Amino acid sequence: MILYRGLCLRGSGGFIPRRFISNPKMKLNTNSSQESNQTLTFEGNTNLVGTPEERMKNVFGGRIKGDARQSSSRKLAGQPRMIAGVLVPDRPTEPDNCCMSGCVNCVWEQYNDDLKDWRTLRNEAAQNINKTDQIWPEDFHPPLVALDMKNVPQDLKKTKIKMSQPKKKLSSSAYFPTKSTGVKPGAQHARKVAKELVEDESDKDDWENVPVSFRVFAETEKKMKAKKAERLRKLEEEKKAKELNKAQETQSNQNNKTNGPNVSATQE
């Protein structure tokens, strides 16, 4: 037996990799006659069920036929309801297919826009239903802050009362706690940005179960796209201004050429 660079040469059996030597559970068939008798058969996808288009749809979705973009989380959204004359959509579902690579149509950015639209329509419906004696459906995310007590479902009135009670005032030491351990700069920045993004209590409740990093990522992507759109708009305006100035200069040059002989003849 000869060992050479991790391989073991034993008689006429050929090379035996080191992994088979170190792992006794792995078996190696050194019989060349048995290997020569084995035949390989390539089956391909002949036994799969469905047409090629149906199998491709399982991988690529309906975009093959030109369907619009649709995230998997939006398929679980419920149907909208008419409340006090306002068609209120169901609460958007958190996306589960974000790749965090800054896509053109980011699912978290769409989720943020859907949340704002849903909150706007829900508050509008709450203002309209407060003028009536109707009760907001209990299973449709009632906005307890915006609803009057007479419009709140019976099982949620205690929660409404607790929310309306004044909060206890904290001492000054509670706002400046002592730090036992250091905080990373990245975490401080994320908390600062998240605090700036909170517009009101309803917005905070919408994102309470969403990690801060996802919201900061969505808002940052939206701001970057807005800056890019603003920069492109300014470049387009500058381009149009240059073209307009060039056209005015060309027109003035043509006027000077046409009016030149007439001016000289008048002077003579």
UniProtKB/TrEMBL annotation:
PANTHER family: OXIDOREDUCTASE-LIKE DOMAIN-CONTAINING PROTEIN 1. Signal peptide: none annotated. Residues 171-181, 250-268 have a biased composition (Polar residues). Residues 82-126 form the Oxidoreductase-like domain. Residues 161-189, 220-268 are annotated as: Disordered. This is Oxidoreductase-like domain-containing protein. The lineage of its organism: Eukaryota, Fungi, Dikarya, Ascomycota, Saccharomycotina. Residues 220-246 have a biased composition (Basic and acidic residues). One of its GO terms (cellular component) is mitochondrion. InterPro entries: Oxidoreductase-like_N, OXLD1. It holds the Pfam family Oxidored-like. Residues 161-170 have a biased composition (Basic residues).
